[in-house]
Amino acid sequence: MSRIIIPIIFAIVSLSSFAQNDVKEDSIILKKIYDTSLLNGKSYSWLDYLSNQIGGRLSGSVNAQLAVEWGEKELKTLGIDKVWLQSVMVPKWTRGVTEFAYIETEPGVTTNVPICALGGSVPTPIGGIKASIIEVKGLEELSALGKEQIEGKLVFYNRPMQADLIETFRAYGGCVDQRYSGAAEAAKYGATGVIVRSMNLRLDDFPHTGAMSYGNLKDADKIPAVAISTNGADLLSSMLKLNPKIKFHINMNCRTWKDVKSYNVIGEIIGSEFPNEYMVVGGHLDSWDLGDGSHDDGAGVVQSMEVLRIFKEIGYKPKRSIRVVLFMNEENGLRGGKKYAEVAKNKGENHVFALESDAGGFTPRGFSFDCDDANFNMIEGWKPLFEPYLVHYFAKGGSGADIGPLKKDGIVLAGLRPDSQRYFDYHHAKNDTFDAVNKRELELGAATMTSLMYLFDKYGVK
Amino acid sequence: MSRIIIPIIFAIVSLSSFAQNDVKEDSIILKKIYDTSLLNGKSYSWLDYLSNQIGGRLSGSVNAQLAVEWGEKELKTLGIDKVWLQSVMVPKWTRGVTEFAYIETEPGVTTNVPICALGGSVPTPIGGIKASIIEVKGLEELSALGKEQIEGKLVFYNRPMQADLIETFRAYGGCVDQRYSGAAEAAKYGATGVIVRSMNLRLDDFPHTGAMSYGNLKDADKIPAVAISTNGADLLSSMLKLNPKIKFHINMNCRTWKDVKSYNVIGEIIGSEFPNEYMVVGGHLDSWDLGDGSHDDGAGVVQSMEVLRIFKEIGYKPKRSIRVVLFMNEENGLRGGKKYAEVAKNKGENHVFALESDAGGFTPRGFSFDCDDANFNMIEGWKPLFEPYLVHYFAKGGSGADIGPLKKDGIVLAGLRPDSQRYFDYHHAKNDTFDAVNKRELELGAATMTSLMYLFDKYGVK
């Protein structure tokens, strides 16, 4: 054995025994974190309150304000170092009197179908609109059809989510342009309104709302936009095949108001060694108005709060400053996320890591990371620590909408990835309610997030 | 480079390019399998029929017979080589008129609590039984208490499932002795009956039934046994703390009849190269009577049928003979599983592989295997093929109750492992119904099973 090899072996052995001690310590702490969440967790009872006592909380609503006050009050019970509200102007849109629609096969012969206004839509005139329908499979088909075929009609976007994609968020990404830009595009060809197939992989009677944009259309050119349930979409499509001349009636009185003042809710534990390095964990406090927003994103809110509560409960004192941020207005403006990043930048705060939970309260499968290779390699080394908790998925990819504006060189952004198979059954619909969330699944998610925060705090960002 | 090394390198290179072609072919076939299940699957509509048109199907019931006839008829539509019924005598136990129970704090002051008879229990005498209660945390506490404290009382087994265990089947395993042996043990100390906390991690109002045994007690010594819902158990425990003298009344008229004839339903595709090597995939056709048995084990039944249907649909001709077996009587006797193994042994059939799905129709996480190291190493080599489908869990462990009797040297036994967090919310209870099964999750399970069957058929068992 040469004189060079011996010291290398010693170095490897000592590194490895150091690493083994670390692994042992980390395993013990992760076990404590999971036990605390599963045996003595607070996430589920928090969600119960947020969902059942407050309910749906669209930006600018009374409920959104109640949620802000609740979040601040609850964070103040945790004994963390600071809790404050960060003001931000948000859009205010109201649904108004319950909207309705029907198919008219001939005058007086009508079939009701479940619809809802898309968020941000203009209303119909009083008395509603009625027009014949042209069905398309997406935005591309519009230009091929041209103004002649579209003018004066309702455009029916009916491209379904692709069921063969295993990750349902990819299937969503492949369809959501119909909802977001469908009205703006159809208006250019003189359409009188749009009907969009709900972003739902299941066949049922729930219409799913969601954000839309008119782009730079003038107010006078804006046309009403509704979502139709998947069953309703299939019915409408079948009836159109039998008789292309059927008409569709929509009645809604939604409205956009002036922006109003709202808040991000922020809590902080000051770091013991590197107080000027900030790590964020968060979800968004606002939700759509149809359900009570339990999966989207009540789950992410209470899981994020639970991260700091668990740290306090197990007596873990982070080296870096850890903030929980309950972002306002993810759904229809992202104003809270933008504001938080803007203030952080103006104050010169060094954000090194941010984690968002905004994909539902289902069994956690892992995380996706928006980061460089050095950090991703470090993360991959942590995989064995998560295996006892059946958390296997660690991949590069997107993180979360609210933390996106924090992106800069050197920061690691992460998104919790729960099982996604059921998510779009509930997303933005009336059935996104507390009973659709399983206590253990929610708690496992909170523990998985806390564990990742712990590891990043301990080892730092590369 | 020595003359020895060069041939080795050639061998490695050619092996590796062979292996790469195999991986490519396997990836393409797995994609076909998943696409077929998700886009053109039959498992969900089969389950709809079995659950909603037939319903709960306890061994010996009319519904069990209807399920046998349905299974045979459906398998015959698949164009496989053989379909037959294998007769087996099964126990017949009936619940009778709906059972009920209440807590009596003082004469005339009563509180109803949700209970159900455990499967196989003797009835109460007409008019029911009423006695005071002694609460224990498990079988161990009984002997410490002794006959003096137990005689004439109802023993209340109240050890809950351990919430900190990530794999809920382990938590079940840690409690189920109370249900299975609780009555036999308590009877030895002169108890008049037993009340067992439901095997459920959630707090709710559903009592969960399940198999129990009186061991070798004489008929005259058998005592009634019921499950109480988790909320009911917590209530009873609280009331006992306030007043240890409260009484509990149980009324039930369940009954055990003579064994009756029933059937395993079997379908087969004859292997093209090794027709005398048998591979089995199955679930159990019987279920408890309270719900409609959608998760336990309607899901496993239709997923197993789907394996053969997918092979036919994609035109895959297995080299080995593949059998789907819909086992009768897993829940309260395992007679179907034992009969199948007995007949196979008597006929000298060489069974090389068996896979069971009996853990619910939730998102598939992987498999556990009862096999030797050589086979397990081969299986581990297949992990990357499953990663695109978010199937990561491959571990040694149990397989399935019905295929257990096939165990012998050289056979590989496997069990599908779906996400288990929600399973015991429904297991053996009234809410195990079709609406609790998600179409995509069920279909992903079927595809995952089909993929494993394909790989074992292609590469054989070591």
Automatic annotation (TrEMBL), chains A, B:
GO terms for cellular component: extracellular region; lysosome. SUPFAM superfamilies: Zn-dependent exopeptidases (SSF53187). It is found in: Endoplasmic reticulum; Golgi apparatus; Lysosome; Secreted. It comes from the Bacteria. GO terms for biological process: proteolysis. Residues 1-19 form the signal peptide. Residues 264-449 form the Peptidase M28 domain. The keyword Plastid does not apply. InterPro entries: CPQ, Peptidase_M28. GO terms for molecular function: carboxypeptidase activity; metal ion binding; metallodipeptidase activity. Pfam families: Peptidase_M28 (PF04389). Keywords: Carboxypeptidase, Endoplasmic reticulum, Glycoprotein, Golgi apparatus, Hydrolase, Lysosome, Metal-binding, Metalloprotease, Protease, Secreted, Signal, Zinc, Zymogen. Homodimer. The monomeric form is inactive while the homodimer is active. This is Carboxypeptidase Q. It comes from Aquimarina algiphila.
